[in-house]
Amino acid sequence: MRLFIAVCFSDDVLDRILKETSFLKDELSVASFSGRQNIHLTLNFLGECEKKDVDRISGAMERISFEPFVMTMDRIGAFSRPDGDIVWLGVDGSDALRKLHDNLCRSLFESGISFDRNRFKPHITLARRARGHIGTRTISPIDAEVISIHLMLSQRVDGRMVYTPLYTKRADAVSSFGV
Question: Rounded CA gap, 63 and 141, in Å?
Answer without folding.
Answer: 32
